[in-house]
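--- STAGE predict ---
source: upstream dedup step, 1 unique chain passed
mode: sequence only
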Amino acid sequence: MSRAQIARLRTSATVVENPTHEDHMYLGTAETNRRYAAALAELQARGVIHTHKIAPFNRLLEWFGFEPRPVPFLSWKQSLLIFTLGFAIAQLIVDPLLSWTTGLSFGFHTVELVISALIFGGIMAVFQVWRQHKLGLSDWEQL
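--- STAGE serialize ---
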């Protein structure tokens, strides 16, 4: 991106336009748009992504009042929460289908679910922090 394009992204009032695509970003405030565009540009410059499209999940987060971020820019706590909840929901769906919980008491199954989800969420959160440092990505607040 040229300096003029970056300056245009920073000064946009409500919409940040990707100079190489026709789609627009409509993510609440101009500050959120600017940070999101800068984060995508940084990820694209490092070869992590090849598009500037907003993920549908991020649009959903913005609709609920949260400030959406690309996954590598999430804080450790946000990564832990997202991966833990995602794993727990997936395990609740998969366990009965594969009959893995047959014969287990409700209490033991609940404890196993919580422990395994926290372990998976913790591992993924540590991986995301390591990945952010490995790629040399800026902090979200510095974008």
